Amino acid sequence: MTVKVGFLGGLGEVGRNCASLEVDGEIALIDCGLMFPEEDMLGVDLVLPDFASIIDRASDFRCIVLTHGHEDHIGALGFLLEEVNVPIYGTPLTIEFARARIEERGIVPDLRAVEHYEWVDDGPFRFTFVPVSHSIPDAAGVAFDTPEGIVLHTGDFKLDPTPIDGVPTDLRSFATIGKRGVRLLLADSTNAERPGYVPSETTVGERLDEIVSHADGRVIVACFASHVHRVQQAIDAVVRDGRKFAFIGRSMLRNSDIAAQLGVLDIPEGALVELVELVDMPSGETAIISTGCQGEPFADLSLMAAGDHRLVSLSIDDTVIISATPIPGNETRVSRVINNLYRAGVEVYHGRNTHVHVSGHAAAEELKTFYNAVRPDAMVPVHGEYRHLVANAALGRAMQIPEVEICEDGDVVVLENGELTVERGAIPGGYVYVDGAEVGDADTIIRDRRHLADDGVLIVTIGINFSTGEILIGPDVDSHGVTSDDEDLHAVVAERVRASVASLDHPIDPDTLRRRVRNTATRAVKSSVKRRPVVLPVVIEV
Questions:
Q1: Has residue 451 been placed in a domain?
Q2: Is the pLDDT of residue 485 over 70?
Q3: 490 flagged as catalytic
Q4: What is the CATH number of the domain that holds 486?
């Protein structure tokens, strides 16, 4: 029986993690994540996997299996479920985080919480979750028992010997699965270039304690709302210092409430207060745990830094801790927020000047330890930029994994009769953009926006008698973002357009006239100011 693993996203980028598993003609998805737009994706809100290969086979689509509750693994669920609604499996916290994201889009999902080590049977799919240590509780690797052998997805993981929740990556169970025979391993590649080991999450808590205890005024800690372990350490640090605290940010309020209800976030009684109460308390007795660690323009931390927050005004005795590292593409925005915080006169701690963040992904020696425990027959690196995939593949070969394949989005791995082959570009793997209310292919729109951003826009209005060729209005020229010397440029363009149009034979064809105006204006601007703006000809029949 043929088993296929297809990659809809996550290979060659950080985000959009989504893979398909096909057994006996039916399909399961492993994760369903989104990616935040890069700097050159102008106006784009979110980036999704291309679900065409799933939607086109909706009758074969059986279920979705989630490794953990981060946005790059669950954030696209609502968009897919609008097209086809299937059962979703995950550990309890993962399921509740997914529920909150899906129900925001008005969808009633079929969510099924599964405990670690419990085997699930759904049609041809049989799988189990194995606990891993990551930057969120309830994270798991998932093992699928298929006719071609076990397909094992690590999820996001590291080998933290002292995890906050006391649940380490269960190497023993992974080794037991390995003894049964792992036919294909899909392995987290994020930190494959990084030598050695990633420090334990507890080391961040120690530094948070130190910073908070020396802070004179209010403390503001910004981190991912889904990083429940980091939120817990921030709570512990401020409470130990005798401070009351408030949460800020919709996702922080939502996720902390879910985590507290499930017992994975401990909030001491009386320590949490509403923000409207907190701002009236002495600053040295208060703290805020906030979203906005990625520099999002309208996130609370960004608004505070810019002096635009409706309730919180920064003062020089405040201390701000950005306990996260920028997602690729967000570096400029995060830097802008940090600069604004310094301008406000506050003390700022972030990943580049002190130890307030550790990664949740395994470094090279941890990956090698994992491979030694599992000993798979074949491995495909996942979750990372292409250089991360290459580095992870090199680790796999160094550990003498017999078959190591580097794949990209759109590739499909085929397991059949003990053989492994890769079908390159077999399924759609491109970007799908969420741009305002639109979801789809916005490549042309983005190219136009880049063009406008680089060279501006020029509008040429001309009124003409199509029969005689007589110019009765204009040419009138207007421009935005082309040059600071608009009047001189406009005069040059108008003169050349008038001369060019006057040479046309009449009667004049409107389409021909528009092309002549556009081409003439483009050449005039290029020769005058070395720019190629978007030229919009407005032709009026008089």
A1: no
A2: no
A3: no
A4: 3.10.20.580
